[in-house]
Amino acid sequence: MIDAELYRVFNTVATCGTVSAAAEALFVTQPAVSKSIRKLEELTDCRLFIRSSKGVRLSTEGQILFEYVKKGFEHLQNGEQVLKKIRNREEGLVRVGISSTLCRYYFIPHLEAFHQRYPGIRITIVNRTSPETLKLLEGGLIDFGIISIPKKRSPFVYRELLTIRDVFVAGRDFPGLQGPVPLQALGQYPLMMLEKDNVTRQYIDAYLTENGAMLQPDIEIGSLDFLVEFARIGLGVALVIRNFIDDELRFGLLREIEVTPAPPPRQIGIVMPANLPLSVAAKAFIDALCPQVRP
Amino acid sequence: MIDAELYRVFNTVATCGTVSAAAEALFVTQPAVSKSIRKLEELTDCRLFIRSSKGVRLSTEGQILFEYVKKGFEHLQNGEQVLKKIRNREEGLVRVGISSTLCRYYFIPHLEAFHQRYPGIRITIVNRTSPETLKLLEGGLIDFGIISIPKKRSPFVYRELLTIRDVFVAGRDFPGLQGPVPLQALGQYPLMMLEKDNVTRQYIDAYLTENGAMLQPDIEIGSLDFLVEFARIGLGVALVIRNFIDDELRFGLLREIEVTPAPPPRQIGIVMPANLPLSVAAKAFIDALCPQVRP
DNA sequence: ATCATGATATAACCTTGGGTTATGGTATAA
DNA sequence: TTATACCATAACCCAAGGTTATATCATGAT
After folding, report:
1. Could you identify the residue whose CA is nearest to the C1' atom of nucleotide C10?
2. CB B129: neighbour CB atoms within 10 A?
3. What residues contact B178, with CB distance under 8 A and at least 6 apart?
4. CATH fold of the domain at A92-162+267-289
5. Tell me, which fold does domain A166-264 have in CATH?
6. CB atoms B72 and A68 under 8 Å
């Protein structure tokens, strides 16, 4: 194929109507443009322009070529424009994998802030469990995930967002369990936890086993919402995430039950593919989530 | 706009899937391509490819850009192809202005030959009088015209095709007018000529006036066909073009009446715009009509 | 007629940027 | 481990494209 730059010059000259104007538009001198169109004419072996003292106009063959070249450069220019907008974060798409719980209690404010800051970037949220989120990440179906306690050693890279603590809570008027109590003491009360397949639950089960407490929950449910609600109306003792029930504690709707040993704190963080460049939009989102500098 | 050559390299790499293959396709070395895509990435400030030891693949932004660039270069390549076909005379259009008489008696065999030689070139024939043909030429609506006795001094250039002679003819058994006769002698017979607005007629009128013969035709008609036919059935003496009644003379259907002085021979020729390049197709046609070399 | 203007063409020269060769790093397959 | 195929980097080089200067031509105004 002929040097695409020659077509660009041709396109500009045909559009401008004079060689001089085209030269100005291309930020080069007039002889340079003259030379270029002459060269294109030699390569195509076709007279493309009719020169006169008033400027140039397209020959029969030039007109035909111009129909194609014009369209071609419209596409190239559109592409350039779109890329520029993406670069300026005026357009784009970011696909996030996140559990329902984290979305509900942690993610929404960030989402809102990001959307206000970059209204042109569309956001896709895929609500799945952590293992499924990792699968999606592997398949390239999401840009990054937000999960808790990511396993080390995998083709992903992690970034901590927040340290969370698991705590036991009960309703305001729930009897007993005042002050620090041993873990085993909870066995006497109705216990409420998340479902088995939840990562949080698995973490807690490990913690319980480690401390020799064979506690089984009386109620299992998929959503933290319900746990909070059930505890509030006095159904029993619920295991919830401390960070997400600030309001209930402040307003006295729930009270925290201090157990020893307390469940060790853990992290939630971003997981993303290692060695794969993030899209501009995804990078912007992650920067908004944790604006620390990177090497 | 960014250097179009960089987009071409981008397009090739994206299509080939590896830098090395693209280099081969572009007839350059691999480092040259590496450098080009790096430069494009710098100019757009976007990572466009994800490199691996198996090759490269498009990043999110690269994919988006590629959608546009691909289409863009499809157009450019199509244009290049079409121009090549025009150059090879496999496609094209030639627009000829010619009178009905010349078309009927002179042009058709050439037309046929040209069409057989270049079946891909479409032909438009515009049947008009010579002055109208010149107008069309001026307006750029035809590529060239075929007319007789072009006036000198105009923004056109001429090329002779054929010398023609105007002769008087009568039917085989038409009485009298044997051997050379003076022009005035024709006044005794029914005279048949083309219509007033015909260039041939004007030429003959000037010839008659010049020779002091105030002859008026008894029959005027627009088509040479009818003149020939009328003479054949003995209606009178017709003024026709010698070159176009070869057959009738050979078969003895008509006989030529020698008058003194004879009308001076004149030419038919091609008229085309001066200083305007002809289209490839038009040039091919003219070359086929009179294959003489040009300066 | 004459001159001024604005357009393209041409020639000679210069420089920069794309291309080359050589080399190194890194996954993947044998 | 070796071998291979791929991409990145560095240093060098030279032609292609650009610049300046000038010629030429057509046009329109004085």
Report:
1. A31
2. 16
3. none
4. D-Maltodextrin-Binding Protein; domain 2 (3.40.190)
5. D-Maltodextrin-Binding Protein; domain 2 (3.40.190)
6. no
CB contact under 8 A, A68 and B75: yes
Tokens linked to B9: 């390299």
Give residues 10 to 69 of A whose Cβ lies within 8 Å of B.
Answer: 44-47, 50, 59-61, 64-65, 67-69
Question: To which H or E segment does residue B194 belong?
Answer: strand B191-194
CA distance A231 to A239: 9
Task: Report if pTM > 0.85.
Answer: yes
Q: Could you read off the pLDDT of A39-89 as tens digits, one per residue?
A: 999 999 999 999 998 899 999 999 999 999 999 999 999 999 999 999 999
Query: Max alpha carbon distance in chain A (Å)?
Result: 102
* Token pair of B120 as six digits: 């891909």
CA distance A201 to A208: 10
Contact A93, A121 (CB under 8 A): yes
- At A86, the amino acid letter reads I
Nearest partner of B203 among B192, B193, B191, judged by Cα = B193
Task: Write out the two tokens for B179.
Answer: 């051997």
Q: Which CATH superfamily is domain B92-163+267-289 in?
A: Periplasmic binding protein-like II (3.40.190.10)
Of B227, B243, B165, which is closest to residue B190 (Cα–Cα)? Answer: B227
Task: Give the DSSP letter string of B37-81.
Answer: HHHHHHHHTS--EEEETTEEEE-HHHHHHHHHHHHHHHHHHHHHH
Within 10 Å of residue B288's Cβ, how many Cβ atoms?
Answer: 14
Instruction: Dump pLDDT digits (tens) for B86-130.
Output: 999 999 999 999 998 999 999 999 999 999 999 999 999 999 988
- Angle (CA) B5-B9-B13 rounded to 5° is 170
The top-level CATH class assigned to B4-87 is: mainly alpha
The separation, in Å, between residue B153 CA and nucleotide C1 C1' comes to 23
A152 touches strand D (CB under 7 A): no
Task: Find, among B125, B88, B131, the residue nearest to B107 by Cα.
Answer: B125
Q: Phi and psi for A45 in degrees, rounded to 5?
A: 55, 40
